[in-house]
Amino acid sequence: MAQYKQSEITNVFWASNDGFKGGRDPLGIQNSSIATYSKLLPGLTNLTKHIRYYSLYCWLLSEYDSIENSGQNTLHQYNFIRRAELAMALIMKDQVVGSVVGALFVSQGRYKQIEDGVYDIADGADYESKDKYWTFKSGAFGQYYLGSLIYYKLVKIEEGRFYLRNKGKELAEAVRNSVDENIRLLFLESILSGSLKKEAIEDLQPLAIHRINIGSEEWSSLNNLLTKSDDESTLRRETIFLLLNDISNGEEIEGFVKKRFLSVTDYLYLEAAFGWYFYYLCEGLHYCIG
Question: What is the mean pLDDT of the segment spanning 212-240?
Answer without folding.
Answer: 88
